[in-house]
Amino acid sequence: MNAFMLVYRPTRPKPSAPPLLQETARRLQDALAAHGIHTDLTNDQRRVLVSVCHGLVAMVQEDGIWWHSPRELRPGIPLYVHRGTVAGAAEALVDDHALLTPVQIAEEPHDATPV
Fold first, then answer.
1. Which of 74, 78, 83, 104 is deepest in the core (most CB within 10 A)?
2. Nearest to 47 by CA among 76, 14, 4, 79
3. Contact 40/70 with Cβ under 8 angstroms?
């Protein structure tokens, strides 16, 4: 090593999630796509993050699928949701997604005159 080189700690690449978790995350992504919800997947060490919308990210881990719901147990107490199946997680995530992204209904044009 010469005097002009800075000393850095060697970095190791982060281990990616196991293939089984990646497959589970893809199945969840497909199940949500069937409901018209676009998601993004991110490998994060020993889990896969499924970004559903702003404020709603599910974590696919070895023990199931977890996320922080926009609902609350009681006022001020957050609700953390766990599902063991892709179908159960998709159903609950669709409900939570609907709470965070309400549908905007446009007014239909009509022939009525204002009062």
1. 83
2. 14
3. no
Q: How far apart are CA 35 and CA 40, in angstroms?
A: 15
Which two structure tokens, joined as six digits, stand for 65?
Answer: 């699928």
Burial of residue 80 (number of CB atoms within 10 Å: 0-12, 13-18, 19+): exposed
Classify 43 as helix, strand or coil: strand
The whole-angstrom separation of Cα 30 and Cα 90 is: 9
User: Tell me: the pLDDT tens digits for 15-63?
Assistant: 667 889 999 999 999 999 999 999 999 998 889 999 999 999 999 999 9
- In whole angstroms, what is the distance from residue 56 CA to residue 70 CA? 8
In the numeric block, which tokens belong to residue 38? 């676009």
